[in-house]
Amino acid sequence: LPAIQEKHDDVSMLQELVKRWANHKVLVGKLCRSFNFLDRYYIARRELPTLKNVGFGCLRKIVGAEMKVRVKDDVITLINQEREGEEINQTLVQNVLEIFVDLRNEDDTQNMEYYV
């Protein structure tokens, strides 16, 4: 989180967030594959959240609590810049929006609180 927060300009902060998110997704994926047995048997029997949900939930809590408003405002600023005719990094905006979609809680797909 400090590596993301220390970025003062909108674009560099969003780029750092996308980079960190990509690393986090890889790590969560490897953990899920490594502990697949736990997910299928132990966690399912005890009705616990999956490792994927726990892994994404950790980042959801950190980014959601600390950064959600700033990230949302920065993306809206970039979109407004494009509307005014400026050139923006559209891939960056798309990647940040995908982060918001990925961070939703898969167990509660009706809850749109994270997007507000």
UniProtKB/TrEMBL annotation:
Pfam families, per the entry: Cullin
Residue ranges annotated for the Cullin N-terminal domain, each copy included: 4-115
SUPFAM superfamilies found in the cross-reference section: Cullin repeat-like (SSF74788)
Gene Ontology annotations of biological process type: ubiquitin-dependent protein catabolic process
GO MF annotation, one: ubiquitin protein ligase binding
Domain of life the protein comes from: Eukaryota
Classification via InterPro entries: Cullin, Cullin_N, Cullin_repeat-like_dom_sf
Family that this chain belongs to: Belongs to the cullin family.
Name of protein: Cullin N-terminal domain-containing protein
Organism: Papaver atlanticum
